[in-house]
Amino acid sequence: GLTEPVNITKYVAGEFKRLVELLSGAVKKLSDKRNLSALGDTCVEMKKIIIACDSRVDAAIYGLFPSETDVVGIIKWMEHFELLQVLMEKCENVVHTIESIIIKYG
Fold first, then answer.
1. H/E/C letters for each residue in the chain?
2. Mean pLDDT, to the nearest integer, of 15-30?
3. How many CB atoms within 10 Å of residue 94?
4. pLDDT digit string (tens) for 38-72?
């Protein structure tokens, strides 16, 4: 049924909230070039969140096919999960940018 995709979406939404808070804090700390290296731990934490969310979304997509018989429902969930994957990729790009700044200026 739809319980699993909904639960995964709730989990990912909660983790995105945490990720955005970490990203926001990291961006604010970029102005202090003396403490850039301290952002390394934040980047590691953000990467862990992204990997965990990505794994959950991949599992949710895989799980749609044996459990769902409604083709329209599968397509809607696929589009939903693809959007979550795009969001994760965008966040990952920001983390990579922060890491590049740390390497260049830290």
1. CCHHHHHHHHHHHHHHHHHHHHHHHHHHHCCCHHHHHHHHHHHHHHHHHHHHHHHHHHHHHHHHHHHCCCHHHHHHHHHHHHHHHHHHHHHHHHHHHHHHHHHHHC
2. 94
3. 16
4. 899 999 999 999 999 999 999 988 888 876 678 88
pTM recorded for the entire structure = 0.87
The sign of the dihedral angle between the CA atoms of 47, 49, 52, 57 is negative
Distance CA 17, CA 39 (A): 19
- Token match 């990720």: residue? 19
Counting Cα atoms < 13 Å in the Cβ hemisphere of 33 gives 4
How far is the C-alpha of 36 from the C-alpha of 30, rounded, in Å? 6
Cβ contacts of residue 29 below 8 Å, gap of 6+?
A: 35, 36, 38, 39, 42
How far is Cα 69 from Cα 89, in angstroms, rounded to an integer? Answer: 29
Question: Which two structure tokens, joined as six digits, stand for 26?
Answer: 């990291």
How far is residue 22's CA from residue 98's CA, in Å, rounded to a whole number? 12
